[in-house]
Specification:
Length: 691
């Protein structure tokens, strides 16, 4: 049977139904491309589904690895500001995260594995009004030696950390420094160490701040080449000790906070994390100079010399808050009474000084030399820091000899020390004390204390607490978590030189730094420096090193605009010109500066805000203000620009936005004043005025 099958025009197909179907054969041949196309389409659909699933998973993973404006990667994290710019970068240097082990719950993101094994890592976000903080912890659960994170500067300027021998503002970390213990040290003796006033806090010009937790065995290093600060937690080979019951595995924990601007962020950090002074020290110390025997008479001080010094203060028409009797008035170091050879009538001397209107403070320290009569007493009572065995006292070397150091974690040692100070106070009507030393660098490398110290700088804190009963006129040179102690904190001894290494140029950066760390009642050391013979720019003879006259005058002018002034080398050691300039600036300080400082000091108790402020405090987005280290503000409206270089009768001055009234005219900022004239008996300062 046959059937005609239509084909193309002009074609006919004959199909033999009995022998198969030519039409089916033709159709099968034509269907192959369609099947292939279908299969390909299915593959494409499947690929699209897989891609969508992968994209969705990636999207969810990306969201998982974000905490607000922080983006976590396996080798670190970045933080962006509200405009999307990267403002903070931290790299994980000691290991990487296994991101597949990370989970997110609420405001916390946690991970349980690194590239080498188990760990406990988390980031927790906390928002408070305009500040976003990220609490970060990397806790090793395996026996590794250290945890290291490296913070990149990101073209911003950083401030804070510690008093240093060569102090810069903003920070200028030079060279390549391997991480070392971040503990208090005497930077006069070791100029590469961290200083006696330090806190684990840094602040940047792009409104970010970082604060390392107290529990971290913290080491700090840096790389000038890579522009990084290296934060390390380590117990091995360090003075930090794990707390009792602790595994000994290192943990690096800290918080990074981001604000709208550097000033408001710093205010938040200080209010949130720093203790505040309980009250304000004596107003007299703010108003009138302290006169110290240290640089002028040094350890050769005697009763006769002290009385003559006091008489000359009166003779030359100067005022005073108190007279400070420094090293050395005792027979041996570690005793608490006057050397009868040098001070044959100490009671009569004090009576004479009282009649002349002088209050007197005495120098003290935590050491008892082995040749002192008190060494055996303290040894028998167990008052010293001990060797690791706890059976023998640990002898230490300090700048006046070898001896033991009192263990201020021991209430009996603290009580014994205070009882002797109180005895001096009662017997001679002593007003207060200058507490010297206290840095951990005067502890032996291996030691034990009655209360074990996980952080050696806790010793500094315990020593600084000895000043509390005498705080109205007391003076400390060390501070660690000590902002609540209401006394003056003196920056470390200055050399009588012009430069940044413990010289005149270092004073403003140092005062700004410790102010940012929460220490506002600042004593900027003695006018002209300490006049050590081998570290003095000036006249040196067999008996006395006298700082360069111009250096002394410029130093005096700067000190007149600090919270307090301190003389030792007297103006009359030079000539009448210096005496007149010294009187002029002492009177200016009492009349114009001290009332303003006292008003700000009263607010410190509640806010912790600096008295001496950087220019960026009122110029939050001004790049020029972030870099200026030779000018400062007292409050928000008095700008000070001292001359800090030799041979200069002019200087360049930067005035931020606003109207600034100078000696002769008012300027509209921001403006650079080039070669502004400043004669030897002048200092440039400007008041902000309303328009």
């Amino acid at each position: 049977m046959y059937q005609i099958v239509p084909g193309a025009p002009g074609e006919q197909h004959v199909i033999d139904r009995t022998h198969g179907s030519p039409r089916k054969k033709k159709f099968g041949q034509e269907s192959r491309p369609m099947v292939l196309a279908g299969l390909l389409g299915g593959v494409l659909v499947l690929a699209a589904v897989v891609a969508w699933c992968y994209y969705s998973l990636s999207l969810r993973k990306a969201q998982l690895l974000k905490a607000e404006s922080l983006e976590l990667k396996n080798n670190g994290y970045i933080i962006r500001n509200h405009t999307g710019d990267i403002i903070f970068t931290m790299a994980f240097r000691s290991g990487t995260l296994d991101l597949d082990s990370c989970t997110k719950e609420g405001h916390s993101l946690s991970c349980t594995r690194s590239g080498t094994g188990k760990l406990n890592f988390f980031i927790q976000t906390v928002r408070e009004k305009t500040v976003m903080c990220y609490r970060i912890r990397w806790e090793e659960l395996l026996d590794v030696s250290s945890v290291e994170h490296a913070m990149v500067y990101n073209d911003s300027h950083w401030y804070g950390g510690a008093e240093m021998a060569s102090q810069y503002w903003p920070m200028r970390n030079q060279g390549e420094q391997e991480p070392r213990p971040f503990v208090t040290s005497d930077v006069y003796a070791n100029r590469n160490a961290f200083g006696g006033i330090l806190e684990r806090y840094w602040l940047s010009s792009n409104a970010t701040a970082i604060k390392i937790n107290d529990s971290v065995p913290f080491h700090l290093g840096w790389s000038e080449k890579n522009r990084t600060l290296r934060f390390v937690a380590r117990y091995q080979g360090s003075p930090f000790k794990p707390p009792v019951g602790h595994s000994g595995f290192p943990e690096l924990s800290y918080r990074v906070c981001v604000g709208l601007d550097v000033t408001s962020l710093h205010k938040y950090m200080v209010r949130r994390y720093f203790p505040k002074p309980i009250n304000v020290p004596s107003q007299e110390v703010f108003r009138k100079p302290v006169w110290s025997t240290r640089a002028f008479l040094k350890s050769a001080v005697t009763q006769e010399k002290l009385l003559r010094y006091a008489a000359d203060i009166i003779k030359y028409g100067f005022k005073w808050s108190h007279l400070e009797l420094d090293d050395r008035y005792t027979t041996d170091y570690g005793e608490f009474d006057f050397d009868p050879q040098k001070f044959p009538n100490a009671s009569g001397m004090f009576e004479k000084l009282r009649k002349d209107g002088f209050q007197v403070t005495l120098w003290t320290h935590p050491f008892i030399n082995y040749d002192s009569i008190n060494f055996g007493v303290a040894l028998e009572k167990g008052l010293f820091v001990q060797e690791p065995s706890g059976e023998l006292p640990a002898l230490v070397r300090w700048w006046n000899g070898i001896g033991g150091i009192l263990d201020f974690t021991n209430p009996e040692a603290s009580g014994w020390f205070l009882s002797h100070l109180n005895s001096l106070k009662r017997r001679y009507n002593v007003t207060s004390f200058k507490f010297d030393a206290g840095e951990t660098s005067y502890l032996p490398r291996q030691f034990s204390t009655l209360v074990p110290l996980s952080d050696p700088s806790t010793f500094t804190r315990r020593y600084s607490e000895m000043a509390i009963p005498f705080s109205s006129h007391a003076e400390l040179r060390v501070g660690y978590q000590s902002q609540n102690i209401s006394c003056f904190f003196r920056i470390i001894n200055r050399d009588s030189v012009w430069g940044y290494e413990l010289g005149l140029k270092s004073i403003i950066p140092t005062v700004l730094t410790i102010s940012i760390l929460g220490y506002q009642f600042v004593l900027p050391d003695m006018i002209g420096g300490n006049a050590y013979p081998n570290r003095t720019a000036g006249v040196i003879n067999e008996t006395q090193a006298l700082p360069d006259k111009e250096l002394y005058i410029r130093w005096l002018q700067l000190s007149a605009f600090m919270p307090a002034m301190q003389f030792s080398i007297p103006p009359w050691a030079y000539d009448d010109e210096v005496v007149q300039i010294a009187r002029k600036f002492s009177e200016l300080h009492e009349r114009d500066v001290a009332p303003r400082v006292l008003e700000l000091a009263g607010k410190v108790v509640g806010t912790g805000d600096p008295i001496i402020r950087p220019l960026w405090w009122i110029a939050k987005d001004d790049e020029a203000a972030f870099k200026i280290d030779s000018q400062f503000l007292i409050g928000d409206d008095l700008l000070v620009a001292p001359v800090l270089e030799p041979g200069k009768l002019e200087r360049d001055i930067y005035l931020p936005a606003g109207q600034w009234k100078g000696k002769k005219r008012t300027y509209k900022g921001p403006i650079h004043l080039t070669d502004y004239p400043v004669t030897l008996d002048e200092l440039a300062y400007f008041y902000w005025v309303e328009t």
